[in-house]
Amino acid sequence: MQVPEVTATKKRSGAKDGTVRVSTTDPEARVMKMGDGGFRPALNVQFGTTTDKARVIVGVDVINRGSDAGQSTPMIDQVEQRTGVRPAEVLVDGGYAQHEAIDQAAQRQVTSYAPVPKPRKGDTRDPHLPRDGDSPAVAAWRQRMGTDEAKEIYKQRAATAETVNADAKEHRGLDKALGTACLFALTYNILRLIALGG
User: Fold this and answer.
1) Distance of CA 154 to the CA centre of its chain
2) pTM of the model
3) pLDDT tens digits for range 49-92
4) Smallest Cα–Cα separation from 49: which of 90, 101, 10, 16?
5) What helix, strand, coil percent values describe the chain, rounded to 5?
6) How far apart are CA 97 and CA 116, in angstroms?
7) Which of 134, 62, 129 has the alpha carbon at shortest distance from 98?
8) Domains of the chain
9) Does the CA dihedral 122-124-126-129 come out positive or negative?
10) In 3D, which of 111, 59, 116, 57 has the Cα closest to residue 89?
11) How far apart (Å, rounded) are the C-alpha atoms in residues 76 and 58?
């Protein structure tokens, strides 16, 4: 039963409309903002991919939250568990760039490449300079992302992770979506192996 979980989430978020609605056809889905600006029940599929020529999927997860916040740490752990190797670097979009996640990655000796949020209107501070309250890892991330080298590294997302996400399809139910995502990952990796002549 998903109603208690949705009720608790609405209370925590302070939603104006406290009416709890759960899909009868896909109760594990949550209403999420879509790329077209609309809102629909959906699931959030997470892929961890390599950025080398092989461009294989090394981690897969499915969550029912629209936000990617907090997902980089479990993905780093999953990639290490699946491959036996902890990634030295992670290349993630801005949705993953919470300070806590950057600190957790640094504690694991993983360098994070993620865009620094643009300053709010009227804020004239350089976003790449450390701020009061920044941990050493967050301060280093800010400074790193201000360099030309980090900006070039970040550009790799478009040709790697984004192409994998574009190839994936939407499916229903956490278990079905995770199973489908794993099958997609397996198929994708086999096709990449064939393409590389392996």
Assistant:
1) 14
2) 0.74
3) 998 888 899 999 988 888 888 899 999 999 999 999 999 999 99
4) 90
5) 45, 15, 45
6) 8
7) 134
8) 1-40 (no CATH), 43-195 (3.30.420)
9) negative
10) 111
11) 10
